């Protein structure tokens, strides 16, 4: 997978982006952190980072929604780490508050899946197929090789180089490990 020549990006219309994706980003952050104030801080930080990095946003690499959720994932991880190190900074909701949302790990997995799916679209079909069959579907290399009519070493090579290309695609999308 080669790098594309980037064309100058139009400035990010933060107001339109917020109107389109802000509430969904807030719900994601709220479910992850379980704290409305922290979720608002996450959304604010997402749009601040997006505004600062708008020159690097390339709609050919990812949809605006995917890009914003990748940023949100990183900000939520940062917030969770900050709370783990300094738990006294977190304003906890009342224990008896039945309206307090539960932290949902499924949301984090869903966002991760969107991001990985987007990154997989950016690598070659041969690499994508090898990764999907061996890593995501858990099929043995020999079985995949027999199905494709190639040596096992070729499948291993496609997986190895496909994972490198996938890492590069995730880097280009601004996703931190």
TrEMBL record:
SUPFAM superfamilies: Sigma2 domain of RNA polymerase sigma factors (SSF88946), Sigma3 and sigma4 domains of RNA polymerase sigma factors (SSF88659)
PROSITE patterns: SIGMA70_ECF
Coiled-coil stretches noted in the UniProt entry, renumbered to this chain: none
InterPro entries: RNA_pol_sigma-70-like, RNA_pol_sigma-70_dom, RNA_pol_sigma70_ECF_CS, RNA_pol_sigma70_r2, RNA_pol_sigma70_r4, RNA_pol_sigma_r2, RNA_pol_sigma_r3/r4-like, WH-like_DNA-bd_sf
Keywords: DNA-binding, Sigma factor, Transcription, Transcription regulation
BP GO annotations: DNA-templated transcription initiation
Domain (RNA polymerase sigma-70 region) ranges: 18-82, 119-167
GO MF terms held by the record: DNA binding; sigma factor activity
Any Pfam family: Sigma70_r4
Similarity comment: Belongs to the sigma-70 factor family. ECF subfamily.
Protein name, UniProt field: RNA polymerase sigma factor
